[in-house]
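User:
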Amino acid sequence: MMMRRGWIQDGGGGSGTITWSTNGQQTSSIGYSYGMWEPDYPWMELRFTCTPYGSEPRSVKQRISLTCTRPNYGGRRWWMLCPQTNKRVLKLHLPPGGDKFLSREAWGLGYRSQRVSSSDRTLAKLFKLQQKLGGEPGWDRGLPRPKGMWQRTYDRHLDKFERLDAAVTVNMMQQLEVLGGHMKAAGIGGNGRQR
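Assistant: Predicted structure:
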């Protein structure tokens, strides 16, 4: 990303600052410098302030080694080496409470799709199909047939929609049963009041 935006240049060196803003107010920044003029020892240095959990804010200076590969179509593709695993990565992460930039693997970070339950994934697929055909997403909404769509194409989408809708219904009923069991165990009746 930094190369695509022109913040760093292959074979060069320099420094700069990257800032983030919310509603026009600067929320954070990070300083960087880099040296890529020596192909055997390219590097980047990051300067930032972090607040590890349970401690005061502190200034950090972190040096990251860079490496490159040569794609078949020519040129060079640059990578960062994770300071902990020493593996090539495109991105390094600094999660809340962290004190250094490391790879997703080193921090043990999962992808969003790994944190979503299967019932939520099924519901998301249902909504995506509704939007794909120009409709409003919603469990209580049907599947519109776009003007000009062949009937057999629509029937194929409708079949998928009905399978997803049935799976979402089963998931919802299971969740309601679990919730009802928890409410009963807590002594809460159908009107939401404790007995």
